[in-house]
Amino acid sequence: MTRVSALVSDVDGTLMTQAKALTPRTQAAATKLKARGIAFAAISGRPPRGMRMLVGPLGITAPIAGYNGGQFTGPDLTPIEDHVLPPDVARRTHDMFMAKGIEIWVFNGLDWLIRDPNGAHVAHEQRTVQYDPIVVKDFDKALTAAHKIVGVSEDHAGLARLEGEMQAALGDTASATRSQQYYLDVTHPQANKGAALHTFARLLGVPIGEIAVIGDGNNDVLMFEQAGFSIAMGNASDEVKKKANVVTGSNEDDGFAAAVDRYVLGGM
């Protein structure tokens, strides 16, 4: 195994249990990384504001990447680098979701905008990011500087099909990937976890080949392809597992901590 100078981790389904909690072993693993001089950073489809609860318990001092790399901030949420959707692409994305009758959320800076406070997964997302959405009549103003537009649907198979359709329609003007079976995230083309890994390498001052990554979702595969070493969680789909160098335990079985001990620290 190559030298590991940094570990970049996904959040939901990786660092967090299904109950959106950090286990003592996960926190201890982050402490071990710091003691060995290995930088530890987090990336997520969440807004950076929805990652701030990780900073203290995990001792994060590296930049954090929200919106799949659409916004890099310091641990204190000080902006470092932004990638927002061009307004015409944001409008086209909005219209495509509307045509399919899919609920829309827009994330603009640190804000989360919705139209229906009783919509599917709103309460779940509030618990996840630990702040409240702003209810708006329309998204016209927000579409001028949107970091992420999310289509929310309980039709998981339909959303999977739409992922391919939207990526084909938007081409190189945006990145369309599912962060969960029920969320389809549309972001700036540089706001994907593969491109974000190169930004992490630059900000952390380490070669990208010395970065290990760990995740469970379809949107993590792009960083698997760029990293020196990739780890899939046991709760990942078989498709995602096939793309990683190794597979660890699930997020309900301290798979993150096990991977740190066995593959990151044990491989040194």
Description:
By secondary structure, the protein is α/β, with parallel strands linked by helices. The chain has 2 domains: 6-82 and 191-265, Rossmann fold, CATH 3.40.50; 87-187, Hypothetical Protein, Haloacid Dehalogenase-like Hydrolase, Chain: A, domain 2 (2-Layer Sandwich), CATH 3.30.1240. Helices cover 34% and strands 21% of the residues. The chain has 9 helices and 14 strands. The protein has a 6-stranded mixed β-sheet, with helices on one face. Strands 2-1-12-13-14 form a 5-stranded parallel β-sheet, sandwiched between helices. It has a 3-stranded antiparallel β-sheet with strand order 3-4-5, with no helix packed on it. Strand 3 and strand 4 form a beta hairpin. Helix 1 (24-35) packs parallel to helix 9. The longest helix is centred in the middle third of the chain and has 15 residues, at 156-170. The relative contact order is 0.18. The mean pLDDT is 95.
Number of spatially distinct domains: 2
Strand content: 15-25%
Unreliably modeled segments: none
CATH architecture of the largest domain: 3-Layer(aba) Sandwich
Helicity, as a percent range: 25-40%
Please compute the radius of gyration using only Cα atoms.
Answer: 17 Å
- Reading the helices and strands in chain order gives EHEHEEEHEEHEEHEEHEHEHEH
Mean pLDDT: 95
CATH classification, class level of the largest domain: Alpha Beta
